[in-house]
Amino acid sequence: MAKPEERREALKIIGAIGSTCAFPFSADELYAQHQHDGPAATLPSQPSFFTKDEFAAISRLADLIIPATGTPGALAAGVPAYIDYVVSRNPAAQTLQRQGLAWLDSHCGKLHGKRFAELGEAQQIAVLTPLLEAADKAPLPAGPRTGGLTPRPAWKASTGVKFLHAVKSLTADGFFTSKEGLVETLRYPGNTAMAEFPTCIHEH
Amino acid sequence: MANPIHDIVIAGSGAAGGTLAAHLAAAGVDVALVEGGPKIDTRVAFNTHAMPFHFPNRAIPTMKAGKEGFFSERARGVGGKTLTWNAVAWRYSQRDFKGKSHDGAGENWPFDYKDLAPYYDRIEREIGVCGNLDGLEDLPDGVFLPPVPMKCTDVAVKNGAAKLGVKVIHVRKATLSRPRGGRPACHYCGNCMAGCDVVAKYNSADVHIAPAMKTGKLTVYHDSIVREVIVNQENRVTGVRTLNRETKAEGEIKGRGVVVCCACVQSVSLLLMSKSRLYPNGLANSSGQLGKHFIPHFTGGVQCFLKDFIGKPPANDEGFLDHAYVPSFMHSRKRDYARSFGVQFNYQNRRSTGWTRSIPGFGKSYKQAVTDRYPAFLTFSPYGEMLPNAKSFIDLDPSVKDAHGLPAARRHVWWGSNDLKIFADMIEWSKRILESTGAEILSVSDEPRTNHELGGARMGEDTRTSVVNSFCQTHDVKNLFVVDGAVFPSASEKNPTHTIMALAARTAEHIQERLKKGGL
Lengths: 204, 520
What we know:
Chain A has 8 helices and no strands. By secondary structure, chain A is mainly alpha-helical.
C-alpha cells in the first residue's frame, strides 16, 4: 500500500471537459458539484423521546462505547441526539430502550447500590463489559429480500443484553456516518472528481 | 386535444423502452413512450454527491428535496432503473443461450449467440461500454472502450484467486472511460447508483430518449401509469389505458402496436391486469404460462477484511463501484449441479459502514479496531443462475393494492435443489478465494436472496410453454411485444441489462421491417 500522498500524485481534479459536451454546464459548475463540505444536519439539543435522566445515561453509554481519543468521539459527533431521533421515530424500538435503561439502573443498584450514572468510569466499564460481550454474540441481521425463506430463530438474550446490543448498534451507526466519525476518524477519502483512476503499482 | 394514433406505443422507458424508442424513432416510426414517473433532470435532481451526515437519519434519499421521482416500482421516472443502475454490461454466451443442450436443465433460448451478436455490437457502439478483451469462451468480447484500472484491493483478490486457478478480469460497464458522444468520462466519485449527474454512466433518458426527441417522431407521456393494454374483438391491441400519477385521471394512448417494457415483474403484472373477454386470465395468456418460470438471479455475500490492508491509510478507491469480476469458471470443473455462478465484488461504497456494528468490543480498542479495518473492508457477492420450477412465479395479489390503487404484484420464490447446490458452492468458493487472498471473514450469507428479476413471460418456439417468440412478439396477439427480463427463458449468471438492450435493438429492427412491409 502507498501512503496517501503518493497516491494523490496520480489524481487530478477535472479542470476541463470535452468541448463537444452536449450538457449545459461549465467546467466550473462541474467542479463546484464536487465541493462536499455542506452543513451537517443539526438535531435539537433537547431529546424528544428520552427523559433528561435517560438521555444522560444514553449519552454516557455512547461516550463509553466510542470515546474521544486523538479523534472525536460519540459525544462530539452528536450521537446521543441521533439515537433520540431514531428511537423517537421508531415505536418498535422504544420499549426496549425504556425498559433497558430502567434495567441497567436496577442492575447497578444490585451490584453497587447506585444508579448507572452515579458510578465511576471504572465501575461503569466493569458493568458493561460482560453485557457487551454477550451482545457481540447476537446473530447478524437477516439480509433484505430473503424471498420468504426460513424465518430466523429469535435471539434469546436478556433485556439488558438486547438493550446494550441496540445501543452499540445505534452508536456505531450514528458515529461512523457522522462527519466526525466518517471523515475525521475513518478519513473517508472519496466523493471527489478524478481525471483518471490510478493504476495500482504496488506489490501485493 | 386530438388523440393521435401512434405507430407504436411503448410502456416503460428504461433500458428496453429507451432503446426501442430511439431506434424506432430514428427509423421514422411514430413512437409514443409512456412512463409512470415524472421527467427527471439527471443533472440536478439526484442526491448524487450527498454525504449521510447531511440528513438527520443518515439515510440519503434518492431525490433532492423538492425534486420528483422514484415514487414506486410503477412510477420511477423517465429512464427507469437505468437512472440508478450499476451499469454492468456482459454479453451472454452461446452456452448461456443453449444451457439445456449442455446439461439438460432449464430451457434453451430460441436463437443462438450469433443471432444477437450484431445487436450487442450496435448497443456497445451507441452507449459506450468499457472493458478488456479477455478471450473467454463463456463471456464473449465486444466493442469496448479501454477498461478502468483495478483497485489495489482487486489486484490482491486477483492474485489470491490465481493461486486457485481462478481468473479475475476487468469489469465491463456502460460507463465511459473516455469522453464520447458529448458525454464526459467517469470522474470516479463512487456514486453511480445514486444517479450519475454527468451521464458518464448510461441512462436511457439522456443517451437514448433525449436525442431521439430531435427526430420529431417521439412523444413522451410521463406521469402516465399504464394500467391496461387494450385488445379489440379482432385480437389486435389498440393502445393502452393510463392513470395519471398525480390526478388519477384516466387516459388512453392509441397505437397500431404495443411494446411492454415495464421491467420483468411489472410487465407480467400489467398483462395479468389486462383482462378481457378474449383473455380472461390476462393478455397473451391463452397458454396459462404468463407469470410462470420466474427465475431471478440469486446472490449471497461474504463480508471480509483483507489483512494486507488492515491499519493502512484509506485509499480514494470509490471509483465507479466494482472494477473487477470473477467470471463463471465452473463450466470446466467437475460439479454435481447444472449451470454456474460469477462473482461481483468490491462494490461496497466507503460511506456504508453498517459492518462497524459487528466488530466486537467497545471503547478505545473498538474504535481502533474499526479504524484499522476500514481501508480493508471488502464484500464478495456471487450471483447464481436459478432454474425454473413450478413454485416460483409472479401473480397479482387478490386483495392488496399498490400506491396507485392497482393490484400489487406478488413474487413467489422457492429454491430448488440445484439452486441450493449452486448457492452452497458459490459461497464455498467465495470463502476459498478470500482465504487465499488473506482475508479475515466477518460474515457469510446463509441463504440466497433474489436480485435481477427475470422470467414470467418467457420466449420460446412452443406456444404451449412460452409467451413470446424469438422476436419478443406474443404468440397470442401479433401486434403486441414484451421486451425486458420477463422474456428470458434461462437466466445465465450474468447481469442481464445488456442482453435486454440487444433484444430491444433486435425487436426494433423486426418491428420496423414489418411496418415497412405493410404493418404488424
